[in-house]
Amino acid sequence: MALLQIEALTKSYGNEARALDQISFSIQAGEFVAIIGPSGAGKSTLLRCINRLVDLTSGDVRFAGVSVPTLRGGALRRQRTQIGMIFQHYNLVNRLSVLENVLHGRLGYKNMVQGVLGLYSETEKREAVRILESLGLGEQIYKRCDQLSGGQKQRVGIARALVQQPKMLLCDEPIASLDPNSAKIIMDTLQQINQKLDITVLVNLHQVDVALAYAQRIIGVNRGRVIFDGPPAELQQEQIQQIYGSESGELIFSLRERYAI
Amino acid sequence: MPSDPLKLRQIQSIAFFAILAALTYGSIVITKYDVVQGFTAIPRAFSWATTHFIPDEAAWRRLPRILEKLFETILMAVSSATTASALGLVVALLGATTTRPHPWFSLPARGIASIFRNIDVSAWALILLFSFGQSTYTGFFALFFVTFGFIVRVMVETIDEVGMASVEALRATGANYLTIISQSVIPACLPQLISWVLYMIETNIRSATLVGILTGTGIGFSFDLYYKSMNYSSASLVVLVIVVAVLIIEALSNVIRRAVL
C-alpha cells in the first residue's frame, strides 16, 4: 500500500481560479520525489494540504492509511508528528538556541503542561544532540540561530524535522534561498536521509537540474495540474516547456543538455 | 499649464508656501495676536521664572514629602504599565492574524484596543473620576486603559511580523495552540515586548503627573497644591524632581533594553 495517496485533490481560494485542480498521485514508502513547476503553480499549497496546514476544498489525502481531510484536534496533531516539514526560510525562532529549536520537533508528542513549559526528557535531548552532530552542527548546539549561516539554519530545520522521527519529509523549496554550495550540502543531506534512514522525501523545487540530479521520480505541476509524473529519464523537453511555459524553453533546454551529457 | 515637470514642481512649491503664509497671516488677524509683543514677552517670562521658579530653602525642607509622593506616582506608573501589558499581550494574541484562534476575534480585539488608546489619558482620568472619586484607582485605571490600548496595537504588529514563520513550523510538528504560543511566539516577541513595557513606564510617569493634577493624587497633586497656593519655589522643586526621576528611569530602561535586544 502506498504511504501517501492523493485523490482528486482540489483547492480553491474564494471564487478565484483553482490553486490545485484534481491532483492525483501516490507515493510509496522510501521514494525520493521532486515536485517541479514555476512559482505560483501551487507546489507549496499542495505540500501544505498533505499535513493540513492548508485545508483542501475537495478530494482525499490518505497518509499511512489515514484519511487526512477529516482529522481534527488531537488526531490531526498526532498525524502531523509523523510528517516532518522543511521550509524555504527555515522558520526557526531566531532568538533561541540551536538545541531549543531542534527540540521543538518533539512538541507534537507533548501534553499541554509539558508543551507549554517546554519539558523535554534526557533521552530527547541526547537524541537532538546526536542528530545535530550527524549533520555537522556539533559545534553550534548552544549558539543562537541568528548567528548561523543560511545553510546551517536549514540543517537546524532538518534536525528539527528528524527528531520527530517522521515517516516522511515535506520540503518546501529547501534550497531556494541558499548559495550553490550550501544548496548541494542540503540536497545531499536529504538524499542520505532518504537512503540511510529510509524516510520518504517529497521536495518542492523550481530548479529542474536539481530535480534531475537527485529525484527518483519527478512530478511536474503547472497551474494547479499535474503535467508530468514519472522517472527523470522520461522527462522530455516538450514536457518541461509545458510545465514552465514556452518562453522559458530555451534556458531549460540548455540546462537539460548539460545534464544529459 | 507648463508641460515641463520640473517647472510644474517649482510652481507647486511656490503655491504651497504662498498658501502657508496666507493661513498664518489670516490666523494672526483673526485671533488679534500681537507678534511683536509675543516675542518680546519671552525674555520677561524667563526672568520671572529665574527669580520666582527656583527652589528655596523652605522648598528643600519639603523634599522628603515630595519624594514620598513621587515614589507613589512611580509605583502607580509601573504597576499600571505592567498589569496592562500582561492583559494587552493576551488580547494581542487573540487579535493577531498569526495567533488568533478564529478570524472573528481580530476585529473586536483591535477595536477595543483602538477605543482605549484613542481616548486621551486626561479624558480617561476625568471620566473615571465619577466612578472612583479622588483616589489612586482613578489614576491607575486611566493609565491602565491607555497602556492596554497601546500595547495591544504594537504587539499585534510585532506578533505578525516575527511570529508567522515559526508558528507555521510548530503547527507542522503537531504542537497544540498554547504550546506554540509559549514556545515560539513569546520567545520571539519578548525583546520587543519588554522594550514597549519600558517605554510605557516612562510615558506613564510623565502622564501620571498630569493625571495627578486632575485626580488629586501623587506628585501631580503636590505640584497643583503648591502652584495654586503661589508657592512657586516648592512647585519648581516638584518639576525638578520629576525631570530627574524621568531621566533616571530612561537611563535605566536603556540599559535593560541593550541587555535584552
Automatic annotation (TrEMBL), chain A:
Alphabetical keyword list:
ATP-binding, Cell membrane, Membrane, Nucleotide-binding, Translocase, Transport
GO annotation, cellular component aspect:
membrane
Q: Where is the ABC transporter domain?
A: 4-248
Record-level Gene Ontology MF annotations: ABC-type phosphonate transporter activity; ATP binding; ATP hydrolysis activity
* One Pfam family linked to the record: ABC_tran
Enumerate the Gene3D superfamilies for this protein: P-loop containing nucleotide triphosphate hydrolases (3.40.50.300)
**What is the official name of this protein in its record?**
Phosphonate ABC transporter ATP-binding protein
* Organism of this sequence: Candidatus Viridilinea mediisalina
Q: Which gene encodes it?
A: phnC
UniProtKB/TrEMBL annotation, chain B:
Report the CDD domains cross-referenced here: TM_PBP2
Coarsely, its chief localization is membrane
Q: Which cellular compartments is it found in?
A: Cell membrane
- Name the source's superkingdom: Bacteria
InterPro entries cross-referenced by the UniProt entry: MetI-like, MetI-like_sf, PhnE/PtxC
Q: Name one GO molecular function term.
A: ABC-type phosphonate transporter activity
Transmembrane feature ranges: 12-30, 74-94, 115-133, 139-156, 177-201, 207-227, 234-256
ABC transmembrane type-1 domain residues are 70-253
Q: Which PROSITE patterns match?
A: ABC_TM1
Q: Where is the signal peptide?
A: none
Gene Ontology cellular-component terms for this entry are: plasma membrane
Membrane-topology descriptor:
Multi-pass membrane protein
Q: Which keywords belong to this entry?
A: Cell membrane, Membrane, Transmembrane, Transmembrane helix, Transport
Any Pfam family from its record, for instance, is: BPD_transp_1
User: Does the record bear Transmembrane in its keywords?
Assistant: yes
Give the record's family classification.
Belongs to the binding-protein-dependent transport system permease family.
Question: What name has this protein been given in UniProt?
Answer: Phosphonate ABC transporter, permease protein PhnE
Gene encoding this polypeptide?
Answer: phnE
